[in-house]
Design goal:
Largest sheet: 9 strands, mixed
Structural class: alpha/beta
Shape: globular
Order of helices and strands: HEHEHEEHEHEEEEHHEHE
Number of strands: 11
Strand content: 15-25%
Number of helices: 8
CATH superfamily: Acetylglutamate kinase-like
Helix content: 25-40%
Oligomer: single chain
Strand order of the largest sheet: 4-3-5-2-1-6-10-11-9
Radius of gyration: 17 Å
């Protein structure tokens, strides 16, 4: 049987520039909050292999492993909902910093850009500058969502994918695609291999939020939902292999 890493080395990238959306849970141990060095390094190793194949990679990070704005949505006058969302955006910067150092420990060039200005720790997000970094082979880490409350990091990922003219939006999850129902609760749930944007919107499937789906639909930007916890799946996704669930026209 051929060694898996030899197989991965033979994978030819199908896409030149990709946006990888990583939820905050990807940075923490399963079912727990906080940042796991091992989990972060695992992401960094996969990202390095992608860059070595000549793919331009931008990563949009979430912050749910540290704080979710919805946690404080019932805070009323103590913590306003808009403030809670800003707190969530700042949490994504913590993950971005951790991922940046993990990548640089593997000798990868990186740039961390944030939608909320904080020049002492990151560059402000500037579209043309981000594209230039990608062209130079740097991993661009995008934190802070869109910089606006009431907008999810899924929508931020779709927006950045369009701005940076990505070929595909990769939605990294802990499950192997989109199901008709929660597979952990319903053993009869069916996994979809392919979906159209219309099907996702009509059936209210849990791929990304509706604003993100609409942004991708307008640009005919494909979305691939897949399990990134299986080592090598990011490379397989970029090579165009049939993994996860593909959402397209």
């Amino acid at each position: 049987m051929m060694d898996d890493h030899l197989t991965l080395d033979a994978l030819k990238p199908k896409y030149k520039r990709v946006i990888l959306k990583l939820s905050g849970e990807g940075f923490g141990p399963s079912g727990k909050s906080g940042i796991s060095i091992d989990e972060t390094l695992s992401i960094a190793r996969q990202a390095k292999r992608i860059i070595q194949r000549g793919v331009q990679l931008a990563i949009v990070v979430g912050g749910g492993n540290i704080l979710r704005g919805a946690q404080f949505s019932a805070g009323g006058e103590v913590i306003r909902e808009a403030t809670a969302h800003y707190m969530g955006m700042l949490a994504t910067v913590l993950n971005g910093l951790a991922l940046q150092d993990a990548l640089e420990s593997l000798q990868c060039e990186t740039r961390l850009q944030t939608a909320i200005r904080m020049e002492t720790v990151a560059e402000p997000y500037i579209r043309r500058r981000a594209i230039r970094h990608l062209e130079k082979g740097r991993v661009v880490i995008l934190a802070g969502g869109t910089g606006n409350p009431f907008v999810t990091t899924d929508t931020a990922a779709a927006l950045r994918a369009r701005e940076l003219e990505a070929s595909i939006l990769l939605k990294a999850t802990r499950v192997d695609g989109v199901y008709s129902d929660d597979p952990e609760k319903n053993p009869h749930a069916v996994r979809y291999e392919k979906l159209t944007y219309g099907q996702v919107l009509r059936d209210n499937l849990r791929v990304m939020d509706m604003a993100a789906i609409s942004l991708c639909r307008e640009a005919r930007l494909p979305i691939l939902v897949f399990n990134f916890k299986r080592d090598g799946n990011i490379e397989r996704a970029i090579a165009g292999h049939s993994i996860g669930t593909l959402v397209s026209e």
